[in-house]
Amino acid sequence: MAVPAEGETIQIHSYKHNGRIHRVWQETTVLKGTNNIVIGANERTLVRESDGRTWLTREPSICYFHAEHWFNIICMLRDDGVYYYCNISSPFVYNNGSLKYIDYDLDVKVFPDMSYTLLDEDEFEDHKRQMGYPEVIDQILYRNVDKLISWIKQRRGPFAQDFIEVWTSRYEFHKHNRIHD
Which residues does UniProt mark as catalytic (predicted)? Predict the structure, then answer.
């Protein structure tokens, strides 16, 4: 599998189980790219919804994707702390300059104090019926919700104390070099 290079700008494509595009983030700077992990960053990037609507992200974000876990984590850097938006999703694939995954509706929102809320269970149930998610997908997704919550409680991965500092510093390095090129 191809991997994106550090400093490269890629798109992020979110799909639904039926293969339809859900959302596209136009520009994300790769901070780390391996076969298993892609860490990227963006701010004020254009996002296009499946219905054609567009909007700009509001704050800088560090994005964490894993090829073995059924979730991805968006760390939003706000004035009052780091908020995390965790999508329960398929593991990512990368090809043709785009990171791609299937969004399975369930989300976990994590607050700066590390409290969290599971969101969109109704939407998940609706889409499960409409798109015919197999039972095995249901089991995998809920197992990964549990794994994600365990990461939050243990401060693993993007929830670790120094994760934001390390990757924000790396993003600032790439932004500075892009401005001076």
Answer: 23
List CB contacts of 10: < 8 A, sequence separation 6 or more: 4, 27, 28, 30, 40, 94, 97, 98, 99
State yes or no: 120 annotated in a binding site. yes
* Domains detected in the chain: 9-179 (2.40.380.10)
* Residue 80 labelled as part of a binding site: no
pLDDT at residue 18 in the model: 97
Q: What is the dihedral of CA 27, 44, 37, 161, to 10 degrees?
A: 160
List residues with catalytic annotation: 23
Closest of 2, 67, 66, 54 to residue 27, by C-alpha: 54
Whether 107 has a binding-site annotation, put simply, is: yes
Residue 75 pLDDT level (bands cut at 50, 70, 90): very high
Mean pLDDT of all residues belonging to the chain = 96
Residue 122, classed as helix, strand or coil, is helix
Checking if the pLDDT of 173 tops 70, the result is yes
Is 162 annotated among the ligand-binding residues?
no
**How many Cα atoms are found within 13 Å in the side-chain-facing hemisphere of 117?**
6
134 CB-near residues (< 8 Å, 6+ apart): none
